[in-house]
Amino acid sequence: MTSTATSPATKAGLFGPDAIKALKDPLWDNNPIAFQILGICSSLAVTTRLDKALVMGIGVTLVTALSNVMISCIRNFIPNKIRIIVQLVVVSGVVIVFDQFLKAYLFDLSKQLSVFVGLIITNCIVMGRLEAYAMGNPPWRSFLDGIGNGLGYMWILAVVGVIREIFGSGKLLGMQVIPQAVYDAGYVNNGLMVLAPGAFVLLGIIVWVQRSISGYSEK
Amino acid sequence: MNTSSNGYVMGFAVTVCVVISAALAMTSSALKPAQEAAKELDRQKNMLIAAGFVQPDEVKAPADLRRMFDERVEELVLDTETGKLVEGKTAGDIAALNKAAVAEAKAGGDKEAAKRALTRYRVLAVGAGTDGKPEAYILPVSGKGLWSTIKGFLALESDLAHVRGVTFYEHGETPGLGGECENPVWCATWRGKSIRDEQGHVVGVIVKKGKVDPTVPADKAHKVDGLSGATITSNGITKFVKADLDAFDKYLQTLRAK
Q1: Within 10 A of A176 (CB to CB), how many other CB atoms are there?
Q2: How far is the C-alpha of B87 from the C-alpha of A100, rounded, in Å?
Q3: Pair B195, B162: CB distance under 8 Å
Q4: Residues of chain A neighbouring B59 (CB-CB closer than 8 A)
Q5: How close, in Å, is residue B36 to chain A by CA atoms?
Q6: What is the pTM of this model?
Q7: ipTM entry
Q8: What would the mean pLDDT of B135-144 be, rounded to a whole number?
């Protein structure tokens, strides 16, 4: 993988080529879900509705970015023997803070996301970026890399969320979008879309489409 | 510096842990008031949902919910031993009242009575219809499921015999299995179930193992579908709903007699 290599110490501005690459790559070419097939569990679990998918996406983005910065700042002091557990402590700390904020200001959503906010700690994307990027790159670029990977995760979740909410419950962000007249004419919501297997099929199709556009193939 | 020496590793680990825990402790105490306010609003919202004044998927602003709660729901304090209302006390006094009751029962040396005294005083809410007359009696119900204490509200119609609505709003059951007790679709099946047999004795609502057979009268009147994969949660709900209804029944009977 290209992003695992330690970038040479180029002295470019805040948005030099390296920084842009760190931000843009994970959005498409090196997308954590479509390309690396990471974070699948949570993307099946929290995409029944768009608002859940978005909040989860924001959560993962913030957690990846902030823990990337923190680990990157102390990367030269972390003893190699305990680096994984140090990363876990930092990630858990950030996730708990995010969870506390949700409980205070978005109580309903926090109840619906239930265990999945806590499970961001075990999301492979977060640990993967820490190990692959933040341990070898300066804070600012690590921050952009975290934001990029979080957004790369979020847009796929949002696409799955939109499709599942429209076809599974006829709504979008809690608002009815499929008019009553359509139901009266015999249309029914697709039950498969509400369940995890429906998301699995959808995700497969999205990965397929993304890969055929980006031209990636398994070697 | 030798970053792989044991002393350095230990020191680093301790420092990281202390710094992170301090940060967590600060966030937690800073956010506590907001979290408690959110929890209280959720409690009030669930009372309104159980009473049928608000639909489970209805989006309402917090201020509207609070106003609606203040206008239509009145919280009373009930002494379940005597079956009488306690005048001049509010829901906030419940903990102190029960503490005093436990201390009193312990002084008497009766262990059973002390256990009962833990929940001797309870809140009972009356939901008024738009005409101001009592339309729903909202009873808090809670008890053990599989992993956790489940809390909910059971609202009765004004005949005090039929279920008007139910919500389970706080629990730590397995998501997708026992956690389905909060599913509004399942809760809606409670509506119209009778909590009393023909003699008027409390039988509660029974969460059946499997599906309810609508052709069997006893099933149709008193039972709801079981939660699949969650037998212990289902049985727990059956048990504590019955126990709580029994506790409230002394007072409910006096209301029925009127």
Answers
A1: 11
A2: 38
A3: yes
A4: 174
A5: 8
A6: 0.80
A7: 0.77
A8: 92
Closest to B46 (Cα-Cα) out of B165, B156, B215:
B165
Q: A176 at the B interface (CB within 8 A)?
A: no
What token pair was written down for A11? 């002295």
Write down the pLDDT at residue A6: 47
* CB atoms A89 and B17 under 8 Å: yes
Q: Which residue of A has its CA nearest to B29?
A: A100
Mean pLDDT by 10 residues, chain A (219 residues): 46 74 86 86 86 91 94 92 92 93 89 82 90 92 94 93 90 84 87 88 91 79
Between CA A136 and CA A71 the distance in angstroms is: 10
**Which of A90, A103, A108 is closest, CB to CB, to B35?**
A103
Cβ pair B169, B182 in contact under 8 A: yes
DSSP secondary structure letters along B25-84: HHHHHHHHHHHHHHHHHHHHHHHHHHTTSS-TT----HHHHHHHHHHHEEEEEEETTTTE
Mean per-residue pLDDT, B220-226: 90
Every domain of chain B and the residues it spans = 39-257
Ranges of beta strands (E only) in A11-139 are: none
For residue A193, the model assigns a pLDDT of 87
Q: Do B31 and A85 touch (CB under 8 A)?
A: no
Residues of A in contact with B41 (CB under 8 A): 107
